[in-house]
Amino acid sequence: MHRADARDGSIKSAVLVNTISFLLIVTGVLLNAGAQLLLKAGTNVFATIGLDRTKIMLSAFRIVTEPHIFGGLVCYGFSVAIWILALSRVSVSVAYPMLSIGYVVNAVAAWYLFGEALSATKLAGIGIIIFGVILVARS
Asked: Which of 12, 42, 83, 92 is the one with CA 20 to 30 A from 73?
């Protein structure tokens, strides 16, 4: 193998690792965002969840067995596993700010799914978050 061929292979390998790292980060972020949305959908089934000592065990059982909440907890578990894989490939100073994209996804999804407000201030904040993530990703 020529020296140039070895360098080409390294470049291809580096691009593949970057692509895999990016996909792991995005998957972890989307699983985390999905978990939040499922947890919210699950809590919408209940009235305000009380912390009355006499009913706390019953409340805990009802919460954990609610399908949306259970699904959210499963998504969290998978997101942690994926996130660990991502952190083994990317520095935390690059990976962690990417979690901010989860806020963008959740704000838009909560507006669409739950009718939550998306004010001008929130939209401006979302724009700043996206800009910041782009800056971090390019550094």
From this structure: 92
